[in-house]
User: Which sequence fits this backbone?
């Protein structure tokens, strides 16, 4: 098959959708064809019409599978020229694909709640702390504290204990495809701390800082606090519209794994374009990877930082979302040139992380408890997401549901976001309108739906309420 | 005895110096006379000459006792008009005087060092983390974690867990004479975090921020980082020269308990003058109380904040000096008007303290382990200070040795600080010249001596080295 010519539907093996559902089956068959080079880089995919006939599935099913391949960076869709396999596909730069978790609905992943369950439906970015095993954590801290001498209690490592930085680097190598060393890691109290340090170190009044629009509001506010001129860059289906980046800027802040809040994955071609821009503009790229551990349908793309040959990406991660919000430990992986200036700001402002938590985390990561917890919470969150999507019954459009701690629910045309949120609040639902995340973007009405902190029973109950609200909207 | 007339030496009971030494005896007799109103407020003390004859002690001994009463705020000394009892004496506003610890030299307070003892003589502001009982700490954390439900792991309390804030308020009431409630407490990562929050919340470019000269350099740098115009105010024997404060300023930063680095206590009259100024200038007073737990010769003065009727003082304390430096937990007590703006900055910048340490501290404070640890470390530090002063043999002038984690050693006239520090470094001593703390102040040459992190054996060894250096200086 020559490059550029559409593959014949006859060449592709028929998907096995017996166990997985038609859409999943179509997706897997196409992805397998891309991975095995049956559909090589640059080649055009068959039309949905021809595949629909051949595979005996609806065009809608195929459309959804194509969309997913697109959002994950396997294919590009250009109006009028069909769908083509991307030049660089995810597997070419992913280091260690996670095993594909089968959807699970076992009730035991939702442990009975002790104490008051104070989670409000459907606030976003809220992990479920009750999935975190406090006994294991207490044991890790005791072991960590008693294994060290009093020397470890001194604050001689403002960047974090070397052993913890080594563990974090190892995790990022094996799970996020990054080639990083302990020396590049700086332990922070979380994403905001990292953004604040970056802003105070790199931005001087008048500097241009680019953010996604819609995007994470605290990033805008922290850059503005440092005196920067914040420039909002539109987000399309492939993520940040890199073509809109200005010729000169000091930095661009992105959420490549699961755009906050729209939820798409930054495509591979946009990733490469972003790094090109940073190099040309002599700018820094700030990668916020806060919920990358939660990919429900496929292996996650490796971090943007893993493509960063020019050492322009400042990577920011956090344990506050995947362990528990009250932990207050995160990390950055920083370009060599920025390590010293960032450390100067960190030391002057004195916000280093306590050694007690650091010693506990060394044990928690080193013993494998961390990866086990990630797996268990990923399964629990997937079941919750599936339950909520089932409640919605496919009658309303959602997006960004393939990963992360939230998805976007598009409201029926003409519904005002604020009115809808007010009516939702009256029946106990705390929703955030998409508009709260927008600077200049004018998007159809939508709300952000967080489901990860709720039990299946809560999701079913409040999901019904949400559905009723949508029906009368 | 009428106000203003010198008390006759005959009226005062002769000191009992059998067990305490002559200077301590003279000090205690005079202090008792003040406390019992035998020497009422405003009255003049007998001259050192008349007392020396009556009590059969040298005038030098009495001079030292007078100086100490002066530094502790009992008396004022005015050239040409003698020494008078202050209008407000410490006991009138101290809530709970600590029991006067008898000097102790038991070896067991210096526990054998496990692991590498990495402390460098004589770096200042370094507590001895080996005095901290890791087993107790690990037990407190386990208890704290297992006593709570997962709800406590949420970050719903950016100001700190209510129970910890209540414990801190209780400690400050009983030990620092402050009348504060849990709602006024904000948990921080330490003094620098507090100063950074204050600077970012209160200072806008061009605002005047007053600091002590000499003073704590990070305070100057953090205020300057926020764009403030930093104004250095001279320090005299009574502490900050309040008369030099400008008519308009946004805030003044002070270290009333043990001036950093000179070590005197801010006198009661200066405290009142400072609060008057803050009220007139509509300014805030930032009280850094970081080493107030270490008073070796007398009960400490209550915190400046305890006198703060006008709610103008932002009080900053820390557990990083009295527990261990790697802990990273401190606290502020803030005026009602500042709570919301400070919390807004704290929440945006995301530097709140992790709940693990907070839960451990609730147990540690609540069980009495904290006060026991303070007592034990105070005794250990006092023995170390006494040993070092003994090494110096009274041949060189020191000041600020009555409290805190360091004292000032005045160099022989004509010795250049930097040369002396260079020579000290060559024989393994890391000294800081007083000049590093000065902005405009021109003071005689001196170095800052920290002794708290060293064992008695290390102090004896390095103390001899220091003495030899001084002898050849």
Assistant:
């Amino acid at each position: 098959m020559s490059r550029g010519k559409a593959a014949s539907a006859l060449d592709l093996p028929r998907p096995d959708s017996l166990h997985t559902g038609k859409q999943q089956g179509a997706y897997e068959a196409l992805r397998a064809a891309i991975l095995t080079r049956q559909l090589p880089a640059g080649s055009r995919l068959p039309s949905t019409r021809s595949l629909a006939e051949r595979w005996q599935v609806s065009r809608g099913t195929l459309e959804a599978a194509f969309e997913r391949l697109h959002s994950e960076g396997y294919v590009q869709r250009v109006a009028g020229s069909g769908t083509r396999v991307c030049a660089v596909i995810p597997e070419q730069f992913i280091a260690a694909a996670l095993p594909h978790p089968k959807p699970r609905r076992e009730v035991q992943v939702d442990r009975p709640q002790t104490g008051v369950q104070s989670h409000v439906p459907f606030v976003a970015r809220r992990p479920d702390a009750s999935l975190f095993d406090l006994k294991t954590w207490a044991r890790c801290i005791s072991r960590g504290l008693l294994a060290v001498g009093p020397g470890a209690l001194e604050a001689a490592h403002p960047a974090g204990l070397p052993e913890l930085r080594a563990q974090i680097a190892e995790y990022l190598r094996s799970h996020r495809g990054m080639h990083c060393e302990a020396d590049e890691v700086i332990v922070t109290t979380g994403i905001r701390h990292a953004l604040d340090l970056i802003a105070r170190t790199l931005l001087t009044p008048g500097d241009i800082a680019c953010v996604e629009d819609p995007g994470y509001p605290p990033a805008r506010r922290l850059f503005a606090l440092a005196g920067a001129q914040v420039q909002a860059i539109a987000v399309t289906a492939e993520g940040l519209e890199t073509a809109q980046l200005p010729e000169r800027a000091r930095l661009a802040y992105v959420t490549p794994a699961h755009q906050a809040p729209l939820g798409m994955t930054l495509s591979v071609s946009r990733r490469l374009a972003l790094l090109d821009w940073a190099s040309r503009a002599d700018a820094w790229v700030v990668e916020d990877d806060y919920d990358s551990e939660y990919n429900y349908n496929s292996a996650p793309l490796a971090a943007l930082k893993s493509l960063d040959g020019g050492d322009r990406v400042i990577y920011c991660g956090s344990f506050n979302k995947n362990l528990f919000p009250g932990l207050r430990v995160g990390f950055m992986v920083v370009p060599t040139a920025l390590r010293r200036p960032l450390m100067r700001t960190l030391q002057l402002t004195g916000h280093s992380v306590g050694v007690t938590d650091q010693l506990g985390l060394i044990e928690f990561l080193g013993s494998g408890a961390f990866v086990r917890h990630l797996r268990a919470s990923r399964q629990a969150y997937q079941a919750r997401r599936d339950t909520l999507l089932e409640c919605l019954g496919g009658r309303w459009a959602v997006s960004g549901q393939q990963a992360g701690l939230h998805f976007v629910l598009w409201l029926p045309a003409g519904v005002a976001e604020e009115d809808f949120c007010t009516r939702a609040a009256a029946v106990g639902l705390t929703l955030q309108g998409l508009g709260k995340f927008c600077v200049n973007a004018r998007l159809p009405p939508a709300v952000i739906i967080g489901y990860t902190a709720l039990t299946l029973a809560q999701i079913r109950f409040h999901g019904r309420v949400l559905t009723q609200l949508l029906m009368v909207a």
User: Anything to note?
Assistant: The longest helix of chain A spans residues 369-392. The longest strand of chain A covers residues 229-236.
